[in-house]
């Protein structure tokens, strides 16, 4: 492996790690704080729908980074596959990264945005 591709591999792994950290932070810390604002502020200032709007904006912005991740993974892993440097475990891991990233950014986020457009009455429906 030449020197420049080794640096690309390090940047790729750091980017993967950074996006994983962002997703974990958004899912664990930001969600817990956003949906329990009354515990942090001391009073119920926001409704559950308003807290959901805040969380939707957070997840929407995270989905932009996830879309960039999808492109980076396809380019890097496609190049390594073309060079015959991928084994079965790597192919399966790549599939899971792409599948979960696409589910998040292209399936769940549009549904969440559609529910937000419907308004607060959507939170009382059976679908919610």
Task: Describe the structure in your own words.
The chain has 128 residues and is an all-alpha fold. Helix content is 80%, strand content 0%. The chain has one domain.
Largest sheet: none
Mean pLDDT metric: 89
Q: Could you name the ranges where pLDDT drops below 50 across 5 or more consecutive residues?
A: none
Structural class: mainly alpha
Silhouette? elongated
Tally of DSSP β-strands: 0
Over the alpha carbons, how many angstroms does the gyration radius reach? Answer: 19 Å
Q: How many domain regions?
A: 1
Brief descriptors of the model:
single chain, 128 residues, mainly alpha
How do the helices and strands line up, and which of them pair or pack?
Elements (H helix, E strand, L loop, with lengths): L2 H32 L2 H5 L6 H35 L5 H31 L10
Helix pairs in contact: 1-3, 3-4
In short:
With about 130 residues, this protein is mainly alpha-helical.
